[in-house]
Structure to design on (150 residues):
């Protein structure tokens, strides 16, 4: 099995369609990275992933708007084609199996998960987060100074 994971921003509002009685939500995720080329010049590269999320949980549609940051996980597909300029180009598509909203967007919304719906996965209902979880302290009977077997 090949699995693709991407964290990025939505390039536009999602589009919900009905196909043969099933619901599909289509959206594009952009991931940008900055790097230096061989000459030391700062460059930026953006990779776009066209996503198709087949689900009956359509409540998430209202949150999938341009600029929102998402985590998407699924099965990748790649296709090549010749563009209008005659150059061979590739597209990257993903059939989404797990989708999570990750906080604000580029237009200045907050950057935390507070109040956002997240963990809207393949078989998971939406979960509203009100506060970040904090780890519970270790039980008193566990010593953190014990020798580890490796």
């Amino acid at each position: 099995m090949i699995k693709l994971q991407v964290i990025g921003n939505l390039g536009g509002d999602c589009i919900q369609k009905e196909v043969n009685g099933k619901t599909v939500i289509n959206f594009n995720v952009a991931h940008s990275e900055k790097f230096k080329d061989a000459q030391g010049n700062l460059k930026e590269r953006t990779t776009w992933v066209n996503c198709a999320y087949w689900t009956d949980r359509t409540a998430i549609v209202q949150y999938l708007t341009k600029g929102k940051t998402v985590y998407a996980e699924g099965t990748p597909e790649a296709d090549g084609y010749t563009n209008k300029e005659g150059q061979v180009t590739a597209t990257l598509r993903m059939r989404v199996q797990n989708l999570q909203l990750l906080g604000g967007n580029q237009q200045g919304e907050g950057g935390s998960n507070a109040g956002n719906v997240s963990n809207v996965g393949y078989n998971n209902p939406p979960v509203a987060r009100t506060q970040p979880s904090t780890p519970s302290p270790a039980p008193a009977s566990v010593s953190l100074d014990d020798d580890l077997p490796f």
